[in-house]
Amino acid sequence: MSEKACIVGAGPSGAYLARLLSEEETDVTVFEVNGRLASKPCGWGIPYSIDDFMKLPEETILEKIRGYEIFLENSLIHEYKGDVLGYIVDKELLLKQLLEGANIVHRGVDPRKLIDCRLVVDARGHPVYKGRKALALQAEARANIERDRIKIFFFLDLVGYGWVFPGRDGLIHIGAGGFADYDFLRDRVLFLARQIGAEIVSLKGSPIAAGGLRLPGNGDFAVGEAIGAVMPLTGEGIRPGFLSARALYDSLRNGKPYRKSLEEYGLIFNIDIQLRIIRYLENSSPAERRELYLSAPIEVLKRVTAANLTKLEVAGLLARYPGFFRKLVLKG
Ligand SMILES: Cc1cc2nc3c(=O)[nH]c(=O)nc-3n(C[C@H](O)[C@H](O)[C@H](O)COP(=O)(O)OP(=O)(O)OC[C@H]3O[C@@H](n4cnc5c(N)ncnc54)[C@H](O)[C@@H]3O)c2cc1C
């Protein structure tokens, strides 16, 4: 098949769609406003559920994460060491590899003005997303940490969380994100940096499309954060961006409605689960939030953050932990 495809945005969703289209010899041009790939702040973390979908090239994996510590208001409440839970990738290298078969033009464009392309896909990310947004700030910092473990910090006054992830070149990422303003989140990042004795090198922030899927109108095509393909509670957007690109690709090729394709990749269901948890947290008192964090079974935490739950698995978890889920369902 030969056609000229134009993709606007070289983030994970645009880059992966470019890969899929160029593999079948479509002439693909990707427009990217930034001179450098992956310049947006991002923890570069991908949960192990990516393995069900694609094999990450080994050279793009900076760390395999085999453990975590979860803190609530500064007290350790859960700890795990064992199987691989996810990866920290070199996002810049991963995007570069995905884009290898496409022409890259480093220029900002308006997708509506690309009239000589047979297919135009909007992959511009959160600026064009129409739903509710969260905010996430992240510092690059220097500190000694165990590089195969991540730290997650819950706070009773934040619907969101803080994190410490290993980064590239010996640096680490300290972040805080959720439904809060810049000053609040910056204070949390600085607090976490003090807690682990880190020296901050830079601090950047970005909104996250966290209100669920918003599909474009008839005849328009979009992927990734542009349509809200992000897990709204965890802020995970790389793997969902890939999934949405694959769903659009499938729908273009087999004529299946895009929504149906997104549903088949589990995006609609898993985003909905996380939206329900957000609603629960927003409607809860600090005491109820504390109770939820303390009573959350590890198995549930792991599966919700992997965000590839099926309806059958949820039914199984509901049966195993009825008390825990009753709370969520009532308010969520
Ligand atoms: C602080 C922070 C930490 C995060 N950590 C993680 C994490 O650890 N793991 C994870 O999975 N997700 C994380 N995310 C979310 C993740 O970064 C995004 O959801 C993901 O990158 C979205 O991919 P995308 O391709 O849809 O959009 P983006 O990555 O936003 O890419 C859109 C691209 O379009 C370009 N663009 C915009 N306008 C134009 C234009 N007019 N013309 C040309 N180009 C344009 C932009 O420059 C950008 O490169 C984090 C987000 C933040 C803010």
UniProtKB/TrEMBL annotation:
<dbReference type="InterPro" id="IPR050407">
    <property type="entry name" value="Geranylgeranyl_reductase"/>
</dbReference>
<protein>
    <recommendedName>
        <fullName>NAD(P)/FAD-dependent oxidoreductase</fullName>
    </recommendedName>
</protein>
<dbReference type="InterPro" id="IPR036188">
    <property type="entry name" value="FAD/NAD-bd_sf"/>
</dbReference>
<dbReference type="Pfam" id="PF13450">
    <property type="entry name" value="NAD_binding_8"/>
</dbReference>
